[in-house]
Amino acid sequence: MIIGCSEKKTEPKSYLEITNKQQIDSITQTFVDREIYPFIYTRLEDSNGVVAYENLEKNQRLLANEVIDGDSWIRIWSMSKIVTICLALDLMEDGIISLSDSVIKYIPEFSDLKVAVSQDSLEIASVNWYEDDSLRKEPCPIKYVENDSVMTIVHLLNHQSGFYYSTTNVGCLDSAIADKNVATAENSQDLINKLALLPLCQHPGSYYYYGMNTTVLGLVCERATGKTLAELVKERITDPMIIEGLAYDLPEGATMLPRFSGKDSLLRVANGGELDIFGQDVPDYRPEHKLYLGGEGMIATANGYSDFLRMLLNNGTLNGYRFLEESTIEDLTSPHTQKGNSYGYNGYNLWVSGEPYLEKGRGDKGLWIGGGYEGTHFWIDTKRGFVGTIMTQMSWVFDGTYGYSKDDRIRGAIYQPWTKVEYKD
Question: Is the dihedral of CA 123, 126, 128, 133 positive or negative?
Fold first, then answer.
């Protein structure tokens, strides 16, 4: 008999082999050492959820006492969109809503929305009015006209409905949405009331313009079911698929990392109002604040978000539960907008990379890609069977010539052993 000896436990090994970890680590470290980003946490998981690669680089001056890993809560902003879109597609499979449904069927408060156009009748989003911030002031060269089309759910999915952020560079539009302070709306009804007082920036269905369309889609889901987005995500996504680390409210006892900015060419904690996508304020993630922004309002851990991505990778299933049909995943990732772009196309707010990603050493063609306002990023590789997340919390990147290439450079290094193509600017 041998006493005091136990069987050694071994971690499961991923089928995805990463052979150049030091090269990937070095590229990530450069972004942090140059104080362009406060931290970067990168994680790759295979289709079984086994971690094939992870790395953290962080700024010791700002984050020496912060523990950052795959279970840290991150503000994911627009990475919320694909969650809300998948939820809406699930409701469509159940016959609760449909692509052709009119938005005002569920939100009649939007019946009288006007459209902001220039004085010569060009729609706002098609013209770059102000290249100089000093010109962002009243009066604006616009007028409001009657909406000439029916806004449908498919317009919301494709960012063709006319809802926008306070970043149009048209002063009176930006100030109007900022004055409404939508992130501080008390609840969904208050948000609807605020949006009903704003114009659209285009006639629905006319073209693609990125904005609050997915948040309005979330409001439609709430009205159609009589449940909040938080309830719907829990009942239809996180509970049945056993996903932890994807939510609207910060769990009790958990903390959030600071918001950072490089606006002054110095990495520092962001000042109030610097994240101005909604104006002065941003989502607060307090459980008592019953406002759920389907396009911007979620928080997640890299671990939990990777689980959600693996559902998409596995054609709609996770942990033995089918959430979406394979035909729905095919529709989600088929070309819907930006079809003439050589770099790729949009499915339903999911970018599918084109040939230049391979040619320029930024990954491969056919990747499903998305990201968020504070620098979060994800992609899904169906060819090799893995998902990737790159997490940080940074709004203004001061080094525009290099800093905004973070995701392409890190992803490019990951793919270099497979593609044999080095990153090109």
Answer: positive
* CA–CA dist 324, 87 (Å, integer): 9
Q: Is 392 exposed, middle or buried (0-12, 13-18, 19+ CB in 10 A)?
A: buried
Phi, psi (deg, nearest 5) at residue 25:
-60, -40
Any idea which residue has 């004055």 for tokens?
A: 179
CATH classification of the domain holding 258: 3.40.710.10
- Band the pLDDT of 135: cuts 50, 70, 90: very low
Could you tell me if 247 and 191 lie in one domain?
Answer: no
| Same domain, residue pair 200 and 235 | no
pLDDT for residue 162 is more than 70: yes
What gap in Å lies between CA 325 and CA 338, rounded to an integer? 25
pLDDT at 123: 54
User: Do 212 and 314 fall within a single domain?
Assistant: no
Instruction: Indicate the Cα dihedral angle 278, 404, 213, 354, nearest 10°.
Output: 180
pLDDT in tens, 407-420: 999 999 999 999 99
- Domain residues for 129? 96-225
For residues 296 and 356, what is the distance between their CA atoms, to the nearest angstrom?
29
Q: How many domains does the chain have?
A: 2
pLDDT for 118 = 76
